[in-house]
Amino acid sequence: MSGAGNDFLVWEGAVEIGERELSAIRRLCRRGTGVGADGVLFVSREGPGRVAAAYFNADGSVGRFCGNGTRCAARFAVLKGLAGARLVVRTGWGDVAAEVAGGGVTLALPEPVAVGRAVSSLDATGVLEREAYAVAVGVPHAVAFVAPGVDLAALDLSRLGPALRHHPDMREGANASFVEVLGPSRVRVRTWERGVEAETLACGAGSVATAVTACALGRATAPVSLETRSGQTLEVGFRFAGEVARDVTLAGDARVVFEGTLDPAEWEGA
After folding, report:
1. Cα(first)–Cα(last) distance of the chain, in Å?
2. What angle do CA 22, 27, 29 make, to 5 degrees?
3. In the chain, at which end, N or C, are there fewer CB atoms within 10 A of the end residue's CB?
4. Helix, strand, or coil (residue 157)
């Protein structure tokens, strides 16, 4: 499945995950020699209107929350008859309410989001502003804005991405989002993702972190439209209560790209 270009291998059912399974996840997510994906989802029914979504990054690490992955899990649940169009998806972050309408999914996040402390953007070339911002959206994020006149599309994320992702002031590391403001309610964002260790075509939670940060700094107003690397747009809505963004929503597409049968030997590692 693809959520705004963030792509996932999705299975129905809960699976016990050990080292063999983690090895299979890493192998299957590897592009060229595997299926190729940013991560893996196991979606299972928990009760009326409820499903669980276990998410693993491409490197086999557990993902506490993935915005685009959760939207794909919600649509998958509806397509497989596991839940109706209004459902709750249990994630490592908590219960996420979801509404599926055709190929679009809107999530209501379980907790408010606040912009954290400022940290250095770790850029000595002047293409980024000096300060970046730490934001938690289920998992840690760092948001950096390009300097005036700099084209986001021209940034070398192979250099800037790993530096901000491994920021020394963020002990767990972070997903690193780089932002260009396009207008009062529109921004462009590129994200280097932790656990993928590469730029992805979109990052849902990173888009939430970006939108809240841009509005907190007075550079945008909610709701915010975010243009991703794939060219797809994600929409983030919220309201500020003091310095905290509440009633945060994330909306965008969630598409089934193909369905197939995995060779058992690829899962078993034979």
Report:
1. 26
2. 95
3. C
4. helix
- d(CA 97, CA 137) in angstroms, rounded, equals 15
Consecutive H or E run containing 227: strand 224-227
Judgement on whether residues 63 and 106 belong to the same structural domain of the protein = yes
Question: How far apart, in whole angstroms, are the C-alpha atoms of residue 23 and residue 268?
Answer: 9
Q: Is residue 269 part of a domain?
A: no
Residues 247 and 235 in one domain: yes
> What is the number of helices (H) and of strands (E) in the chain?
5, 16
The alpha carbon dihedral of 208, 209, 215, 220 has a sign of negative
pLDDT tens track for 188-242: 999 999 999 999 999 999 999 999 999 999 999 999 999 999 999 999 999 999 8
pLDDT at residue 270 in the model = 54
Instruction: Pick the last residue of a domain from 72, 95, 110.
Output: 110
Q: Is residue 268 part of a domain?
A: no
The answer to whether position 29 is within a domain reads yes
Residue 266 lies in a domain: no
Query: Which residue, 208, 189, 199, 205, is CA-closest to 165?
Result: 199
Tell me which amino acid residue 259 is: E
pLDDT tens figures, 11-55: 999 889 999 999 999 999 999 999 999 999 999 999 999 999 999
Length of the chain measured in residues: 270
Q: Which residues are catalytic?
A: 66, 203
| Measured distance CA(177)–CA(205) in Å, rounded | 10
0.85 exceeded by the pTM?
yes
Sort 217 into a burial class: Cβ within 10 Å, 0-12 / 13-18 / 19+: middle
Res. 60 pLDDT band, cuts 50 70 90: very high
Q: Which helix (H) or strand (E) holds 10?
A: strand 6-12
Domain that holds residue 169: 113-253
